[in-house]
Specification:
With 248 residues, the protein is of the alpha/beta class. Helix content is 40%, strand content 19%. It folds into two domains: 115 residues, inorganic pyrophosphatase (n-terminal core) (Alpha-Beta Complex); 121 residues, Diaminopimelate Epimerase, Chain A, domain 1 (Roll). Strand 6 and strand 7 form a beta hairpin. It is globular and about 55 Å long. This is Cyclic-di-AMP phosphodiesterase GdpP. Keywords: Hydrolase.
Length: 248
C-alpha cells in the first residue's frame, strides 16, 4: 500500500467485521460507506463517513454516488448488475426496507445495462445447498410470538450462508413473524435474524454482540458450542418478547 492509497470500507463500520483490519493502520486515508447503524467498535479514523441508515443497502448508496460524478460517466454493465444484485439481496427482492430512492437507483442501474437475468442466476442454489436449507427450515422450533429458532447441522458446509437463507425462507411461512438461525463457522457461531417488521431483530442481535436493521440482522459468537449458542439466542428472544408484552 502506497502513502497516497485510499482504503474504502463498504457495508460495515465495525472493525471486528473487517477481513483485514491491519489495513486500517496502514492507510493514511479511509472512506467508510455503510447503511448500518453505528456500533460500539466503529471505525473512528475515517477521513469520510458516508452513512445512511435509512438506505436499503450500501449498493443503493454507491449507486447514488455514481450519479454525482461526471454526467458522462457510464458504469460498466457488470458493475451495474453487481450493484443491482446487492440491492436485491438486502431488500429480499424489493420486499423489505424499500423506498422511492431504492427504485430510482435500480432504474439507473437497469438503464445502464444491469442484466436482471444475471442477477437471478447469482442467487441460484445447487441441490445440496437447497437440501440443507430445507432440512434446517423443517427443524425449526416456533417460540412465543411467532419467532422461529433453528440450527444448521454441524456437518453442513457453508453454514453461515445456509443459516441466512434458511432465515429468509422461514419468514415466508404463514404465522412466523421473525426467525433466527444459527450455524457454525469454524471456531465461531454465526446468527442470522430476519423479521417481517413486527419484531426488531436488530435489538436482539445487538445484545448478542452483532447488529443490523429492524428486519435483517446478524451476530457472531466466539468459542462456544452450538447448543450453548442456541440457548443464549433463545434467552434473548424470550427476554425481548417479555419486554414487548410489558410495554403493551
Amino acid at each position: 500500500m502506497r502513502p497516497t492509497s485510499v482504503l474504502v470500507v463498504v457495508d460495515t463500520q465495525r472493525v471486528g467485521s473487517l477481513v483485514a483490519p491491519k489495513l486500517l493502520e496502514m492507510a493514511s486515508r479511509v472512506v467508510v460507506i455503510d447503511h448500518h447503524r453505528r456500533g460500539a467498535d466503529h471505525i473512528d479514523n475515517a477521513t469520510l463517513h458516508f452513512l445512511e441508515a435509512r438506505a436499503s443497502s450500501t449498493s443503493e448508496l454507491v449507486t447514488e454516488m455514481l450519479q454525482y460524478f461526471d454526467s458522462n460517466l457510464r458504469p460498466p454493465a457488470l458493475v451495474c448488475g453487481t450493484l443491482l444484485a446487492g440491492i436485491t439481496i438486502d431488500t429480499k427482492h424489493f420486499a423489505f426496507n424499500v423506498g422511492s430512492r431504492t427504485f430510482e437507483a435500480a432504474g439507473y442501474l437497469r438503464k445502464n445495462g444491469a442484466n436482471t437475468s444475471m442477477v437471478k442466476q447469482m442467487f441460484q442454489d445447487d441441490m445440496e445447498s437447497f437440501g440443507d436449507v430445507a432440512t434446517t427450515v423443517r427443524s425449526a422450533e416456533i417460540l412465543k410470538g411467532g419467532v422461529a429458532l433453528a440450527s444448521v447441522g454441524e456437518e453442513v458446509k457453508n453454514a453461515p450462508l445456509i443459516a441466512a437463507k434458511s432465515a429468509d425462507e422461514l419468514i415466508g411461512i404463514k404465522g412466523i413473524e421473525a426467525a433466527f438461525v444459527i450455524g457454525r463457522d469454524g471456531s465461531s457461531i454465526s446468527v442470522s435474524g430476519r423479521s417481517l417488521g413486527t419484531i426488531n431483530v436488530q435489538i436482539i442481535c445487538e445484545r448478542l454482540g452483532g447488529g443490523g436493521h429492524l428486519t435483517m440482522a446478524g451476530a457472531q459468537m466466539e468459542d462456544m458450542e452450538l447448543d450453548e449458542a442456541e440457548t443464549l439466542v433463545r434467552n434473548e428472544i424470550e427476554k425481548y418478547t417479555q419486554e414487548i408484552i410489558k410495554a403493551d
